[in-house]
Design goal:
Layout: E1 2-4, H1 7-19, E2 23-25, E3 30-35, E4 42-49, E5 52-64, E6 69-75, H2 79-89
Antiparallel strand pairs: 1-5, 2-3, 3-4, 4-5, 5-6
Amino acid sequence: MKIKLNDAEIAALKAFLEGCEDAEQLSAREYVADLYDLERPLTLDLVFVKGGVAVDGAAELLYDAEQDGWHMGSRLESPEAVKAALAEAGAFEA
């Protein structure tokens, strides 16, 4: 799925990912990020493309107290939900 972003949103998202301790840059255009501080924590695989970002993967993160660790839950299929989660995390703030 693709999320359309303007140039300012793209720049803000890149800066957010570069400053996020739970994000890793895999290539010049690709990042993986775990957003634990959201009401509904997510893991994301994002690839910057012309006019926005392609979401190669997005899933809920669920905490298992018994195992003392996180695991992936259901996939997110909605670009609007992913963009809203990124906004909640502060990814588009300058």
